[in-house]
């Protein structure tokens, strides 16, 4: 039987996200920043450090994929209580932006797996090798996957930055409580 979200810090009448949703949001944001930072800096590492960074990036990516799938399940199973803030158009726009971000994150995870596999390299995760014999591509296909993975990362970062700017604008300019619902430590 599923646990009621009341057990996770959400009370009747709250317009705040529950504690699990907030934890998943900030964990996602943190992992995305770490993964992006590693991806754009490992070109400057020497060979052994680059190999280690890629293995760490891959392991975090696999763990992140599981976290993202759980986050989508959690979002589907328990939605925020209370009326959505703002107009219907704003709520639709915000929902659309979240759908785009979730879609891009899932695509980025899939491209990360395929990037490794298309180059005939297994994913090395927590001491185990995961391989896919049917995912191999020629050199041109492998390059396309790598390029899409890179463009996807940059697109996610631009949209996440815009997401943060809008949240800060709504908090400091509109003063509508949007940021407090996700980050209750902000007054």
UniProtKB/TrEMBL annotation:
The cross-references to InterPro entries, in alphabetical order and at most eight, read: Cyt_b561_bac/Ni-Hgenase, Cytochrome_b561_oxidase, Di-haem_cyt_TM
- The keyword Ion transport belongs to this UniProt entry's keyword annotation: no
Q: How does it sit in the membrane?
A: Multi-pass membrane protein
Q: Which cofactor does it need?
A: heme b
Name the UniProt key words of this record, in alphabetical order: Cell membrane, Electron transport, Heme, Iron, Membrane, Metal-binding, Transmembrane, Transmembrane helix, Transport
Q: Which family does it belong to?
A: Belongs to the cytochrome b561 family.
Protein known as: Cytochrome b
State the organism of origin: Gluconacetobacter johannae
